[in-house]
Amino acid sequence: MFNGERHDLDRLDRIFREEHGRVVAALTRYLGSIDLAEDAASEACVVALETWPRDGIPPNPGGWLTTTARRRAIDRLRRESTRTSKEGEAHMLLELHGTDGPTPDESSIEDDRLRMVFTCCHPALAPAAQVALTLKVLGGLSTAEVAAAFLVEEATMAKRLTRTKGKIAVARIPYEVPGDAALPARLTAVLTTIYLIFNEGYLPGGSTQETGDAVRPDLTGEAIRLARLVVELMPDEPEAAGLLALMLLTEARRAARVEDGRLVTLADQDRSLWDRELIAEGHDLVRRCLRRNAPGPFQIQAAINAVHTDAPRAERTDWAQIVALYDQLYAVSPTPVVGLNRAVAQAEVAGPEAGLAAIDAVHGIESLDCYHPLHATRAELLRRNGDADGARAAYERALDLATNPAERAHLSERLSSLEML
C-alpha cells in the first residue's frame, strides 16, 4: 500500500508516463479518435490515483488502465445525448468488443503504437506538428512539456495540438501502417520523431521542471522499442537500422552519464559502466549499414558513436576519424548543430583555438544563440585556451538556457572552478 509519500507519487507518475502511449494507442484502435482516447486514458489515471494507493498497483498496470479507460469511454458516450458519426461508430465498436474483453497482448499493443506513429507522422501534417503530437500522445508528455521542448507558451502548443488532431479527423487520416509503396515517403518523419522522443528521454528538458529527472528511461526505452518495430517492418532500410544503432550506442552510456546528480562528460565517464551488450548490438548494426554503402544522417551519427564506444579510454579516441565522419554528415545534413559538433571534434585534433575558429566559421551559427550546448562548448574551449573571463560569460549564458538538472549541476561546477584558475 501507499503512505502518500513523495516517492509513492513519483512511482505512480512513472507508471502513468510509461503506459500512456500504450493505452492511448490501444484505445484509438477502438474509438477511432485520438481526443476520445486521451480523455479516457486521463480519466483512468484519475481512477488509479483514487484506488491504487488503497488496493495496491495491479500486476498489469497497462492492462488495468486500458480496461478502465474503455469502460469510462463507454460511460461517457452513453451519457451524451448527441454524437458525431465518429463517436457513434466508436460507441458501436465498444459495444461490439465489450467492456470486459481480454487485455490486449504485447504484440497487439506494439502494433497499435506503430500504427499511432505513422498516423502522427502523416505527410498531411506539418513536420513540427508530427513531432509535437507524437511526443504528446505516445511519449506521454504533458502539453506544458511539449511546449517547453518547442520553446513556446503552453496555450500556443495546446492550440497547435488541437488543430493537428482536428486535421487528422477532417482529413480522415487512417490509423494504420501504410502499404509498402508509401512507406519510404513516410520514413524520414517517423525516424526523426522517434529520435526526438529518445532525446527527450536521454536529456529531458521540459519534463525536468516537475519531476527533476536527469534521465527518463521510459522515453528512451519507448523510442528504442519503436525503432525495433520499424526495422522489423522495413529490414532493408539502412536508415532505420542506423537510427536503432545510434540510440543503442547512446543508451549504452546512460549509467555513466550522471553521478551525484551531475552530468559526467564523455571524456570523464567510467567506461566500465557502459552496457557492452548494447554496444555490441549497435556495432553489428553499424557494420551491416556500412556493407549497404548507402549512408544517411542516422547511419553516420551511429558510426560516430561507434568510434567513441570503441575506444577503451578517452585518450584512445580516433578523433581524426570522427572529424572525417562529421565532414560526411555535414555534406548530407548541413545544419549548424552538425557544424558545432564537428568543431568540437576539430578542437580535439588541432586544439581549442582551432575549435573556436571552426565554430565561428559554421554557417548559420547565430541561429543557435538560444541553444545552450553552443555556449557550453564555447565556454570549455575558451577555458582550455586560457580565457577565463570569456569562459565565465559563456558558462553563465549556458546556465541561463539549460533546464536539465544534471547539465545545470555540471555547468555550475565548471563555472565555480574558474575561480581556481
Automatic annotation (TrEMBL):
Q: What is this protein called?
A: Uncharacterized protein
Task: Indicate the segments forming the DUF6596 domain, all copies.
Answer: 186-289
Q: What organism, scientifically named, is this protein from?
A: Nostocoides jenkinsii Ben 74
Q: Which family does it belong to?
A: Belongs to the sigma-70 factor family. ECF subfamily.
RNA polymerase sigma factor 70 region 4 type domain location, by residue?
Answer: 118-167
Output the GO biological process annotations, alphabetical, semicolon-separated. Answer: DNA-templated transcription initiation
Domain of life assignment: Bacteria
Domain annotation RNA polymerase sigma-70 region: ranges: 16-81
GO molecular-function terms, A-Z = DNA binding; sigma factor activity
Transcription regulation listed as a keyword: yes
Q: Which UniProt keywords apply?
A: Sigma factor, Transcription, Transcription regulation
